[in-house]
Amino acid sequence: MDEITQNYKLDGELLNIHTYPDPILTQVADEVTDFDDNLKKLCKDMLYTMYHAPGIGLAAPQVGIGKRIFVIDVDYTREETSEGSGEYTLSNFNPQIFVNPVIKNKEGQISYQEGCLSLPGVYEDVKRFENISVDFQDTDGNSHSIDASELFSICIQHENDHLDGIVFIEKLSPLKRNFFKKKLIKAKKQKNHNL
Ligand code: NI
Q1: Distance (Å, rounded) from C-alpha 25 to C-alpha 163?
Q2: The CATH number, out of the four listed (3.40.50.2300, 3.20.20.100, 3.90.45.10, 3.40.710.10), of the domain defined by the range 3-194
């Protein structure tokens, strides 16, 4: 575990999560070339924001940054401190940072009900590859390769789609896709109107 993943929960900045139809969500993100302190801070803040949302994955375009980066934790536990308090304790962290990821060796098929912090209120079954391997870099620019299956694999594919400007409703039938698009645009308009 590197320095960032050890210290991410000590402090961090809560980033603004962009929601559909924000144009940043449909743009193809750029390769990361500078492995500097700004990159480390961004990853730390993305983890902080993901844990507080809460979510199990967050991609840079979702916080308005068009770079090929996402963070994932499919293992942490979130427990309410006492019933109805609205306060939560987080534990069992397993933060993972992926810079310039490339998915390879896609095998099998798995279906899972997905949600997305950028598509509030939408939960639908999406088909993904069951097993994948991923080449990626860490925040120091070192190269790694890992195998992923089940929820970890699903989450990587979902987040990687964000880097290609794809939100998961694009994976649904045209009928469902259009239904949710209209619903999300309407919800966004109403929200803006109420401000
Ligand atoms: Ni998402």
Answers
A1: 8
A2: 3.90.45.10
What residues have their beta carbon closer than 5 A to ion ligand 1?
A: 116
149-173 pLDDT per residue, tens: 999 999 999 999 999 999 999 999 9
Q: From residue 118, how far is each of 62, 141, 173, 175, 193 by CA, in Å? A: 7, 28, 19, 20, 19
Distance 154 CA to ligand 1 centre (A): 11
Q: pTM, whole model, 2 decimals?
A: 0.91
Name the residue ranges covered by the structural domains of the chain: 3-194
- What is the CB neighbour count within 10 angstroms for residue 61? 28
Active site residues: 159
